[in-house]
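re: ur question from yesterday

yeah so i grabbed the chain u mentioned. its 227 aa long if i counted rite. heres the sequnce exactly as i have it in my notes:
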Amino acid sequence: MKVLVDCLDMKNKINTLMILVFLGALAGHAIGGGDDSAPTREYQVKAAFIYNFIKFIEWPGPAGAEADQKSDENNEPITIGIIGENPFGNTFETVTKKKIKNKQVVIKHFGGFEKNNIKYREDSKTKYKYKDADALKACQVLFVSGSESEYCKEIIDIVKDSYVLTIGENKDFLKTGGIIEFATEQKKVKFAINLIAAENAQLKIRSKLLRLAKKVIEKEEDEEENS
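ran it thru and got these structure tokens back, copy pasting raw so excuse formatting
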């Protein structure tokens, strides 16, 4: 039995190492090219990142116990939501044919925030009620498209208490409470992580993924300035 366990542990370590090598290669993969090919390559890389991020995230399970993902009990699929314009095209088609943590992957596309919200006033403030809020909260991963730059904070506010891994590509996405922010530097896709936001969402990000990030926010910026 011990030999079997040791073999399984070794297999898991090898698989993890291969994923880390793959993610490292993605971070160094140039996405430049012609005007038509560059966006496709960029979002192929981002889709691969998103798929592999999931393998290094732990969602809280029933009664606060950690589980592979929040719907683990009834074996529901892992849902990756995309809100706003879909820049991936059919890139995620290959992803949905594979399983993560023995679960099927489902992609859900949500309409833009501006056209799908109800605006109202409360306490002299303008507030929004997004029509598909419950569906957003049911996602394990939510990619906030660049088309939603004006409403990043409102979108994050909807899901911040629902154990959702928020990923965006807008500048200052982390500052609005997002968890992972993509950036393109010298034609290469990089990512930064807001560990505070992840902890607030009760998501555990493995240290191996944190080491691959170009930046990890571990405390509030005003604390950093005073330290």
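noticed a couple things. The helical segments are 2-27, 37-53, 133-137, 152-159, 195-200, 207-210, 221-226. also The chain has a mean pLDDT of 79.
anyway ttyl
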